[in-house]
Amino acid sequence: MVPTITAFERSPDRGRGLARDMRVRWALEEVGQPYDVRLLSFSDMKESAHRALHPFGQIPTYEEAGLVLFESGAIVLHIAQRHAGLLPEDANARARAIAWMFAALNTVEPPIVDRSMAVLLERDKRWYGERLPMLEDRVRVRLGELSSWLADAEWLEGAFSAADLLMVTVLRRLNGSGLVENYPNLTAYVARGEARPAYKRAFAAQLAVFASQPPNG
Ligand SMILES: N[C@@H](CCC(=O)N[C@@H](CS)C(=O)NCC(=O)O)C(=O)O
After folding, report:
1. In what order do the strands lie in the sheet with 61-64?
2. pTM for the complete prediction?
3. How many whole angstroms separate alpha carbon 148 and alpha carbon 20?
4. Which of 20, 42, 79, 105 to mutate to test the pocket of ligand 1 (most atoms within 8 A of CB)?
5. For FRET with 100, which of 24, 27, 49, 53 sits at 20 to 30 Å CA-CA?
6. Exposed/middle/buried for residue 91 (C-beta within 10 Å: 0-12, 13-18, 19+)
């Protein structure tokens, strides 16, 4: 059975590949697994039919025979465990790569999301001007640590893995902020991820969804 994922009918990022269905699309493309996409409006996501799949009424979800998953990290891990190519075969190396998947989502992504939420939703608050530099400093701390760890390595743990897939999508959320550009090895790391044919196919697929929507529909 071809799995079905959910994605925004009209992504607020205007097809820049920042919504979390991009991670799942990329993972499926890396392992060569075809998939279907069910597009949802913001109101569809809050309906009981979708909440039966996703307790928090969000995207992405993943459905295959007898299994429904939510949380992009859990979905990518599931795909990586079911198919070869996204996690090392060696048990210890695999455990390390999984640790980096958690690090991407639990340690690096939270300050990046806090910053994006402030930029999106808090610009008109009187304290915005003071809060933004504080949030950006927190992002810089994590980027500096990640940059030091990565040094001149190509990927986080040996060959490209699901850890890199998640980390690159997390770092891409800073596009336009100028923050990643202060770390040339991270800029090159993101570019290596984006250069992968599977990434390009996933990006094109989500962009095609956005481009197919009427401008004000
Ligand atoms: N931790 C969740 C976050 C899911 C999430 O925030 N999804 C966003 C799109 S990227 C969403 O559905 N936003 C709409 C909403 O929360 O109403 C995951 O990684 O899947």
Report:
1. 36-40, 4-8, 61-64, 67-70
2. 0.97
3. 26
4. 20
5. 53
6. exposed
Q: Which one-letter DSSP state was computed for residue 105?
A: I
Ligand 1 proximity of 40 Cβ (cutoff 6 Å): no
Tens of pLDDT, residues 33-52: 999 999 999 999 999 999 99
Count of Cβ atoms closer than 10 Å to residue 217 Cβ: 6
The rounded percent of the chain whose pLDDT value lies above 90 is 97
> Is residue 102 a contact partner of residue 73, using CB atoms and an 8 Å limit?
yes
- 36: tokens are 């279907």
Question: Counting atoms of ligand 1 from 1, which one is nearest the CA of 21?
Answer: 10
> What pLDDT digit, counting tens, does each position of 59-95 carry?
999 999 999 999 999 999 999 999 999 999 999 999 9
Q: Distance between CA 85 and CA 95 in Å, rounded? A: 15
Q: Residue 28: its pLDDT value, please?
A: 98
**C-alpha distances in angstroms, 114 versus 108, 122, 131, 142, 200?**
11, 11, 10, 13, 27
Task: State pLDDT tens for residues 99-122.
Answer: 999 999 999 999 999 999 999 999
Largest CA distance in the chain: 53
Q: Whose CA is nearest to atom 17 of ligand 1?
A: 58
